Every structure is written in C-alpha cells, then in structure tokens.
Amino acid sequence: MKNIRDSWGLDREAVGVLWLNRNNGKIFMNPVVWVKEMDTCYNETSCGSGSIAVCLLEGKKVQVVQPSGEIISAEKRGGAIILSSGMEKILELNGGG
C-alpha cells in the first residue's frame, strides 16, 4: 500500500484501494483502506462506493461479489447509480440529517 500511496502522491487521512478479480463471469472485489493515524490497512467486508466505481468502469449493470460473499448490484439509471443487495440496512440518511 505504501508503494501505491507514494506512486500517486497520496498524503491523506485515509487511502482506499480496490482490487478486482474476474472469474467465471463474476466480478470479485477486495477493498483495502489504509488509515494514516493508525498506520494500518483494513480489509473491508463490503464496499458500496467500490461497487459504484465498478459499474462506472464497466459502463453497465454489474453484480459485484463482496469479500463477505454477499453481492451488491449497481446500475446506472439516468444521472444516478442504484445499488441493491440482500444486506441488512442499519442506517439511512436523508437530506444530510
């Protein structure tokens, strides 16, 4: 991760990297976040923003297998990206409140 931060000149509070693997027509992701204050890397169990990035990269609806084994679907509709999954929603924010 240090090589990636140095190569890109990333001196931030946190830096995330998303590795993708394609196997048998499926897209698997491995999101890792480095946190400066702790100087440690954390392997995420799922990543909604990473699934959005994969959708934009592919230019079509995608189903991304998360490290947890769950699937997040991402689809561009008009000017929005719609995410759906079988995961439990534990918090919803509307209008910044």
Write structural notes for this entry.
The protein is 19% helix and 42% strand. The chain is built from 2 helices and 6 strands, in the order αβββαβββ. It has helices at residues 2-8, 48-58; strands spanning 14-23, 26-35, 40-43, 62-65, 71-77, 80-85. Strands 1, 2, 3, 4, 5 and 6 form a 6-stranded mixed beta sheet that branches. The chain is globular and about 35 Å long.
SSE arrangement:
Blueprint: H1 2-8, E1 14-23, E2 26-35, E3 40-43, H2 48-58, E4 62-65, E5 71-77, E6 80-85
Parallel strand pairs: 2-4
Antiparallel strand pairs: 1-2, 2-3, 4-5, 5-6
Number of helices: 2
Q: Average pLDDT, to the nearest integer?
A: 88
* Element-level helix/strand string: HEEEHEEE
Total strands: the figure is 6
Beta content: 35-45%
Low-confidence stretches: none
If you compute it from the alpha carbons, what radius of gyration comes out, rounded to the nearest whole angstrom? 15 Å
Query: Helical amount among residues, as a percent range?
Result: 10-25%
Tell me the distance between the termini: 34 Å
Structural class designation? alpha+beta
What is the gist of this entry?
The protein is α+β, with helices and mostly antiparallel strands and 97 residues long. It has helices spanning 2-8, 48-58, and strands spanning 14-23, 26-35, 40-43, 62-65, 71-77, 80-85.
